[in-house]
Specification:
With 182 residues, the protein is an alpha+beta fold. The chain is 39% helix and 29% strand.
Length: 182
């Protein structure tokens, strides 16, 4: 397996493979993943996106990716994570761990203090994976700060649940928010 920073050149070169993994993941997971991103979602510019996003290759083909950007100057946010759906669970976890190791290496070079992610409330397997990998659930105050720092139009409904009142039909609207300290 080869892990690389997913810069814009690699994104453009492998966009069809990434879009297929994205669609397959959405088809398999449904509301627990959400509506598949389209090309424009993957190509949108975000702060440090092309320095922090990562991609895994197996036998020259994309096996998984993490789309990440920087916010508030010193924090990384994981926007999208997917691996080839046909792989067994242990292989998916192996790829995810390698992708996160590369992300963490790049984030440490940039002196970021932690990474965050929002996981749909229905995506129990990802929540469990994150907790086993050292992520911690953010509390209400941390989520409110996260919403403010990212300038999001979201609200906290429970101590650790964020609500997107504007989610389109088919996309998740309730999320748990996690952070991983560097």
């Amino acid at each position: 397996m080869k892990i690389s920073v997913l810069n814009k050149k690699l994104m453009l070169k492998h966009l069809d493979e990434i879009l297929k993994i994205e669609k397959d993941t959405s088809d398999l997971r449904g509301i627990a993943y959400g509506i598949p991103w389209i090309q424009d979602n993957f190509l949108i510019e975000r702060d440090m996106k092309w320095e922090l996003s990562t991609v895994a290759f197996e036998k020259g083909c994309v096996a998984g990716f993490i789309i990440t950007s920087c916010y508030d100057g010193d924090k990384a946010h994981v926007h999208r994570v997917a691996v080839t759906t046909s792989l067994p669970s242990n292989e998916k976890k192996r790829i995810l761990r390698a992708l996160y190791l590369k992300l963490d290496s790049e984030a440490n070079k940039k002196e970021l203090i932690y990474r965050t992610t929002s996981v749909p409330i229905d995506n129990i397997s990802t929540q469990k994976f994150n907790l086993k990998e050292g992520w911690i659930e953010m509390n209400k105050n941390e989520i409110e700060e996260f919403i403010q720092q990212k300038n999001l139009e979201l609200v906290v409904t429970e101590s650790n649940v964020m609500l997107d009142k504007f989610a389109v039909n088919g996309d998740p609207y309730e999320f748990k928010v996690f952070k991983y300290l560097y």
